[in-house]
Predict the 3D structure of the following.
Amino acid sequence: MPEQDSILEGLFQEEERLTEKQKKIIMAAIESFSEKGYAATSTSEIAKKAGVAEGTIFRHYKTKKDLLMGIVSPMMAKLIAPFVIKDLYKVINHKYEHFEDFLRAMMENRIAFLKNNMPLIRILIQEIPFHPELKEQFKEHIAIKVFERFVTLAEYYQKKGQIIDIPAYSVVRMTFTSIFGFLIARYLILPEADWDDKKEIELTIQFIMHGLSAKD
Amino acid sequence: MPEQDSILEGLFQEEERLTEKQKKIIMAAIESFSEKGYAATSTSEIAKKAGVAEGTIFRHYKTKKDLLMGIVSPMMAKLIAPFVIKDLYKVINHKYEHFEDFLRAMMENRIAFLKNNMPLIRILIQEIPFHPELKEQFKEHIAIKVFERFVTLAEYYQKKGQIIDIPAYSVVRMTFTSIFGFLIARYLILPEADWDDKKEIELTIQFIMHGLSAKD
Amino acid sequence: MPEQDSILEGLFQEEERLTEKQKKIIMAAIESFSEKGYAATSTSEIAKKAGVAEGTIFRHYKTKKDLLMGIVSPMMAKLIAPFVIKDLYKVINHKYEHFEDFLRAMMENRIAFLKNNMPLIRILIQEIPFHPELKEQFKEHIAIKVFERFVTLAEYYQKKGQIIDIPAYSVVRMTFTSIFGFLIARYLILPEADWDDKKEIELTIQFIMHGLSAKD
Amino acid sequence: MPEQDSILEGLFQEEERLTEKQKKIIMAAIESFSEKGYAATSTSEIAKKAGVAEGTIFRHYKTKKDLLMGIVSPMMAKLIAPFVIKDLYKVINHKYEHFEDFLRAMMENRIAFLKNNMPLIRILIQEIPFHPELKEQFKEHIAIKVFERFVTLAEYYQKKGQIIDIPAYSVVRMTFTSIFGFLIARYLILPEADWDDKKEIELTIQFIMHGLSAKD
DNA sequence: GATGAATGAGTGTTCATTCAT
DNA sequence: TATGAATGAACACTCATTCAT
């Protein structure tokens, strides 16, 4: 199941119209935006890093902000695609009989995704607070579409008696929180620490399972 | 117990040497930095908002970065003080016999703190990725000092048989994650949504308690 | 023998890569630096005088100091070239049998040079005290290379019995001093006075010749 | 006859109204102006070096330029005084029977003066090109008054048959040139070189004497 | 007399963007 | 399509100077 999980490569592959220079611009921009932030990165710096003339950037993107959006927007779609389409489908088709299996599959999948797209994710997280359009896009795509699907899923597992009977959106929130809490600590706050990934993932899953178990 | 929980007021109170203008500069800077980010905020904008001449800013802070640090650094100290000193003391003195009581007290305390210092917290969170010095300060003060104390606490409750026997730092990570996950969702991602705070806090506490319960 | 003796024109000719605007910037900078001094000249003033945008200056010269160096450095080379190469050669090839002939030729040559490059020379003289790099360059190129050649020349004429037998470097110092003393009085201190150049030059030469004559 | 030859001390002595702070300001200004030039020296820098508040400078000198003038102007007077009054008198009273004696006395006197007042002299030389008022003062006091006296002296020695019969002002120019050429080389251009002062002075005197000798 | 906070015009420099080539 | 010279507004920061204390 070697899914294409690098947004960048996916982007470059699909859009054949991208020139070599354009690809270099995108890669340079991602590197700089992710390290220094959008506002602190100059277009001339991107041009230099990409090995193109300053003017070339503006041939492809009318403004600097367009460049940011050209990088971040496709990511939004990619970010939600798996949830929306594939995984939900699998669950409904009884692929994941137990919530725990689903949880485990999802964590593995999203960790792989994070690893492959770290700089892009960083940009998204860092820039959302400063760009209302991004915030809006994010809310629409993630906070609503994805959240909705997960609420449906939560209700599915609740009906099966696997999850405690509290509001489904709280279930989702706490699940997300625990998973992303781990990912953030692991990859953003202390990436250089010595992590036993397997064990931490298992502990996190157990924590969620106990926390939401219907047995109690 | 009306503790002084606004960093700003605390700052203004303690340091009597602060001019009226200096206070205005700090307030204006906090507002702008928090809304648009440090890099995207110009000193002239801060001056205008503060109602002072641009030169006045540089009389008090040698550089724009100094201004940022002058705002963020005191916060670091304030941020950890309660954990480090008061709460730990209370726990040791049997004020919180049960982990659940401690959890509830801490959440209430930190929610109040967050409400009173939102813009400052935003700045801290938003700027940490771009300023290595900040990152270092944060790691030193928060990630080490605070984390350490909590690990000690976790071990305390583990010995009392209230918490499951897994590595204490994993206990702390998951507790933090659940609490801050709620706070971030509540105050940063969806502040305008209609939250039933009491209920969500209780659910979060129950989630953590079940997740870490030793009974299982 | 209409040698190209204007540094500026030489510069513009050789370096074909110079834009029209760049030439204007250089000319404006020379004018202002020479009149008001480097430190008291603003880049905006230069831009205005050159009829370009202020940013244009910094496209060609990274800093204001770079602009100064870009103007002054080529002059150093030009300043010493004739001494180092041509004239010494001529002397050795018996072109100037007598010290007096050499002296006369040199004065004429350097006076023409001075006239053609007055503003540049002014900048050099005025700025050397404030810029250690300039001072270093000057010492290396002029005070050492040129001085050395002249010492050799002085020894040559001493051997021929035309010059008194005192340390050669003292001979050079006093010759230089007398010549530049005239040039400074003539062109820098009292340029507006009514000078009989031919006569003064002749007097100066006679003064030096008598002062250094071996006859006594 | 240990004449008071330090302008600064003379200034501080005469003008009793100078406060301690004022003296410190003057000393700090001299140091900075001489090293970095008037234009490149900031008043705040002077204040810091002098250990006074920024405003204090402007209590005593209305503008920064006033400060420069307050330093440089008294020097002008001091610079010419000895020539104008004392030395001329001595010559007329047959103190210096021979031009050579006069020359030797003058060089010794002026070298002592230079050594005691180097920073002030540097300021004068460096700033004259940029300040028309200074230039004017200089011309009036030095170039005219002093020059005039010397012309008279030159004519005196010419009449006595000790100096060649060329225009007296040329005599003066060449004498000045040779003396100041030595002083400039000695104290400004190569102060760190290893000079045999006695010998160089003697050589310079001999050079002038031969150069202007009437014998030839 | 002395202070130092305050000023706002001015500094050198960077910026995103344009456009003729 | 790609270039890079050119722009001028904006930037962070400095300056000489003022003035209430």
